[in-house]
Design brief:
heterodimer; A: alpha/beta; five-stranded parallel sheet; 36% helix; B: alpha+beta; 12 strands; globular
């Protein structure tokens, strides 16, 4: 059953060619017509969702094909106690370095951006090595708040093995994707008929890793790259496998992914880290879902070096009761099903984690429109303008409000309440600072 | 403003260009005078202050503008972060242009490549070791706008500079205030290769990134060729391009044709940050 030989179509991809994209969309349409019923598939990667949204791919998918994002945003599933630990360290005087999109993730009382505003030391870095360099330049404690899946965990492991200064430590919130895919596939009421697997993670793990899962759940899994044509070609293959009832693993990213992956990277990863169970925000306890430093690396483990147990105990992981992030991340709901989406929950005052990260489903739907229905977007925009007193604002009497008050994803007026964005002054004349 | 000096400019140049461009975007390309308040932190390096002064003088010369009044204050150490420059200005025009005059059918022009300023600043601010020539576009636009207005006359329907929030914010505001939708062809939007590559690497959208030397101009379709030709003839407008048009559908909404699919363009929220993986 495992047919992971490089597909000829994958080799010919020119990545962003509109003609090829149109041909793939037609192939997808034909395969869906042969199936003759609605199909739901899941991808599990924020970078996939970024590419799908950025290139507007949902606009060319057959309406009967539902492509949803699973628990693939490492920022979204970083648990609140983990954020609280980072916030506590920054509050105690350590320099906390982290990736940019962790800054606004809400903790129990405040985010890293919040503690930074109160004088805590937080620094956005683009890589772990940047954090190590910062530690070499300073005498104080530098903690790298390490988030992300096995893709970024490998970089963290390499930095640890490469040697770090004594004032450097790691607060690991790294997660491991395959157990979460298992969890979604095993849900009794799952609608998922196939997975797109994340190409960059598969570069490290190899595609063979997915074979037992495909067998166990009788679901096809297609490894996909991140260019728009990579994704379309992988979707065509996935739908064909569903049509043929073939629960195979197919590698549609052969220019990067091999059967066994990058052994060297994996060796380094598992020398430094081990799997452990952990809670994923909004989802559940995921057995083997967390990546934690091994005991022999306690000297770089922030949890071993600083007393953080009280912080975890004081955390309140419950997000707002109306937030349905968890349902969205396991594919049982879309952002449009959430009463908070676009009204009480917007990017500059997020309720749920999916709205915080640039990789979160809600944030991406808010930014790019998710399922594109432009007439509906305009109707909502007009409704929210009327609700906010702007009426239809003819050109001769311009609306005095910023267009931010008129988000294309604004909720119907009944849900709307004054939000920070709705009360913000006009942006006219604002300058870069 | 951090950093106060960056590739392609500094806070001095930015302070002059910011006000000159605010005036120019309303058609007031003839700058009658600028004011400038300078507030410096005690201990601020004299050499840096002199560089900023020279830079302001140079920007004024390019804009044909003069700082006619101002004030200087020194505040105690720690009471502000380095230096604050605050400019205002007075300009005049016979043809007032606003950002609310788009009509369905009008074409949308940008006067050059997008994202240069914001990425240059971000690369410096976050110490991103990016190779390539990322350089701010900060420049006074009154000369360029004068050329466009001379060519387009009353057929110039709307104007806005895509500063913070980038093209996405500017188009949103123009669409909403004008009561039209806007449809953009992504392939027509000029973005330098270095900027596109850096933005992709950092997970940022060039449409969300700030510019300090570009204008978005709405123009009646019949005038578009001569406005575009006038822009191309100006040193700051060589990469000018028609990127889309105003439409009667989806009022207040900006839709982007990516060549592969279509999507909404939303406004960015807060400062764009480099994202994980």
């Amino acid at each position: 059953m495992a047919r992971a030989e490089p597909d000829a179509a994958a080799r010919q991809l020119k990545f962003r060619n509109p003609d090829r994209a149109a041909a793939l969309a037609r192939a997808l349409d034909a395969a869906m017509r042969e199936i003759g019923r609605p199909v739901t598939v899941m991808h599990v990667c924020g970078s996939h969702e970024q590419a799908i949204a950025k290139f507007g791919l949902r606009a060319v998918l057959p309406r009967s094909l539902d492509l949803i994002m699973g628990p693939g945003c490492p920022v979204c599933i970083t648990d609140m106690p983990e954020v609280d630990e980072a916030v506590a360290l920054a509050g105690r005087g350590a320099l906390v370095c982290t990736y940019g999109d962790m800054l606004r993730v809400p903790g129990t009382h405040r985010s890293l951006a919040g503690v930074q505003a109160e004088g805590g030391r937080v620094r956005v870095v683009y890589s772990v090595s940047q954090a190590v360099d910062l530690a070499r330049e300073t005498a104080g404690d530098v903690v790298f708040f390490a988030t992300g899946f096995e893709t970024t965990a490998v970089a963290t492991a390499a930095a640890v093995l490469g040697g770090t200064p004594p004032n450097f430590s790691i607060l690991s919130a790294h997660k491991y994707v395959p157990p979460a895919m298992e969890l979604v596939a095993a849900l009794p009421d799952t609608r998922i008929e196939g997975f797109l697997a994340a190409g960059h993670a598969a570069v490290i793990t190899g595609w063979k890793l997915f074979e037992p899962m495909a067998r166990r759940h009788a679901l096809p899994i297609v490894v996909a790259g991140f260019e728009p044509l990579d994704i379309l070609a992988a979707l065509v293959r996935l739908v064909e496998l569903i049509r043929d009832r073939a629960p195979a693993v197919v590698n549609m990213y052969p220019r990067c992914v091999t059967p066994d992956g990058n052994r060297n990277a994996r060796d380094q990863l598992w020398r430094v880290f081990a799997l452990t169970g952990g809670h994923w925000r909004g989802i559940a306890w995921v057995p083997d879902g967390n990546i934690e430093l091994r005991p022999e690396f306690a000297h770089v483990n922030a949890r071993a070096r600083f007393s953080l147990s009280g912080v975890r105990e004081a955390s309140h992981p419950a997000v707002a009761t109306e937030c349905i992030c968890g349902e969205i991340m396991i594919g049982r709901a879309t952002p449009l099903d959430c009463p908070l989406f676009g009204a009480a929950c917007v990017p500059d005052s997020p309720v749920g984690a999916c709205m915080v990260s640039s990789e979160g489903t809600c944030r991406i739907w808010h930014q790019y429109g998710g399922r594109p229905d432009f007439a509906e977007a305009a109707r909502r925009c007009r409704a929210s303008r009327i609700a906010s007193g702007c009426a239809t604002a003819p050109a001769a009497a311009p609306c005095a409000r910023s267009s931010r008050a008129c988000s294309p994803k604004g909720s119907p007026p009944r849900r709307r309440r004054p939000t920070p964005s709705a009360s913000r002054p006009t942006t006219t004349g604002r300058r870069s600072a | 403003m951090h950093p106060i000096e960056f590739p392609g400019g500094d806070i001095g140049r930015l302070s002059v260009c910011g006000t000159v461009n605010d005036l120019a975007m309303m058609g007031a390309t003839d700058v009658m005078g600028l004011t400038c308040a300078v507030i410096v932190e005690e201990g601020f390096a004299r050499a840096t202050l002199e560089r900023l002064h020279a830079s302001m003088r140079e920007a004024c010369a390019e804009a044909g503008a003069t700082i006619v009044t101002g004030d200087t204050k020194v505040m105690g150490r720690g009471e502000l972060d380095g230096i604050v420059l605050n400019t205002t200005g007075l300009g005049r025009t016979r043809h007032l242009v606003r950002d609310n005059g788009l009509r369905p059918g009008d074409l949308v022009i940008v006067t050059g490549t997008l994202g240069d300023h914001g990425l240059a600043i971000m690369a410096r601010r976050h110490d991103l070791a990016l190779e390539g020539d990322l350089c701010s576009d900060v420049a006074p636009l009154n000369g360029l706008v004068r050329a466009a207005m001379t060519a387009g006359g009353d057929d110039l329907s709307a104007m806005k500079d895509p500063t913070r929030g980038g093209l996405a914010s500017a188009l949103h505001e123009m669409a909403e205030k004008s009561g039209v939708g806007i449809a953009i062809d992504e392939r027509a939007v000029p973005v330098r290769d270095e900027v596109r590559a850096a933005a992709e690497l950092l997970g940022l959208d060039p449409l969300h990134i700030a510019n300090e030397g570009k204008a978005v101009i709405g123009v009646r379709p019949e005038a578009a060729p001569r406005v575009l030709a006038a822009l191309h003839a100006h040193p700051l407008g060589r990469a000018a391009a028609i990127i889309g048009r105003a439409v009667a559908d989806h009022v207040g909404v900006v839709v982007l044709d990516t060549g592969i699919g279509r999507r909404l363009v939303a406004e960015p929220e807060g400062e764009p940050l480099p994202r994980i993986c």
